[in-house]
Amino acid sequence: DAKTTQPTSMDCAEGRAANLPCNHSTISGNEYVYWYRQIHSQGPQYIIHGLKNNETNEMASLIITEDRKSSTLILPHATLRDTAVYYCIVRVGPGNTGKLIFGQGTTLQVKP
Amino acid sequence: GAVVSQHPSRVICKSGTSVKIECRSLDFQATTMFWYRQFPKQSLMLMATSNEGSKATYEQGVEKDKFLINHASLTLSTLTVTSAHPEDSSFYICSAEGRGVPYEQYFGPGTRLTVT
Q: In the structure, what pLDDT confidence band is assigned to residue B104 with cuts at 50, 70 and 90?
């Protein structure tokens, strides 16, 4: 079973920041938080991952709480092309290798 | 970035026949490949994990004799659905991780299987 819980759906206005929350209260000390997204009928796309520090790349920022029990993915300026299902995944296995167990994800609808 | 391809992208087959799906890592050596299945409006379900040169590890409830996985080289894994039935119709997606790439899994575009 997935070790994360996410809201089923969210809306965001185009050009605004999209903040997607994720709870992972049973995360272990050596488990990473990964975010992927899936646009309809395509394979998932890697977004970002982190262990305990906040991370930023060209796509998004990842904010992890100090107790590591939850995190937030931030898309700073959402566009219509960001409409997708976003999956927050805790990676099982030592270090940062191992299988990904997908939950139901959050369907983000970016509206004009 | 690292690229994973799948072939075919779509396939239609008759009930009782077998279908082979290929997954290739195009610009890196995939030491581990994963196979997922996704039914409409559902999330991805991990079917099996394969390491190059060794037998695949199947998730609980996945029939190893029905879903044959071969990972014969560092760039190719195949999934064969044997004696396919309409309930096997699904979206099959592979992913890969390996040498020379960051520690993420890279996903293929998926294969839509329809069994008539």
A: confident
> Closest approach of chain A CAs to the CA of B109, in angstroms?
4
Sheet holding A70-75, edge to edge: A18-23, A70-75, A61-64, A55-56
DSSP structural state of residue A18? E
Q: Do B46 and A102 touch (CB under 8 A)?
A: yes
Cα separation, B45 vs B116, whole angstroms: 23
| CA B58 and chain centroid, separation | 12
Share above pLDDT 90 across residues of chain A, in percent, rounded to a whole number? 77
Coil/strand/helix, residue A21: strand
Beta-bridge mates of residue A23: A5, A70
Tell me how far apart the alpha carbons of residues B95 and B44 are, in angstroms, rounded to a whole number.
12
Q: Which of A38, A49, A100 to mutate to test the interface with B (most CBs of B within 10 A)?
A: A100
pLDDT in tens, A28-38: 888 889 999 99
Give pLDDT tens digits for B54-95. 889 999 999 999 999 998 899 999 999 999 999 999 999 999
**Residue B107: which of A34, A44, A101 has the nearest Cβ?**
A44
pLDDT at residue A95 tops 60? no
Q: Cα separation of B15 and B9, whole Å? A: 19
Nearest to A79 by CA among A39, A111, A42: A111
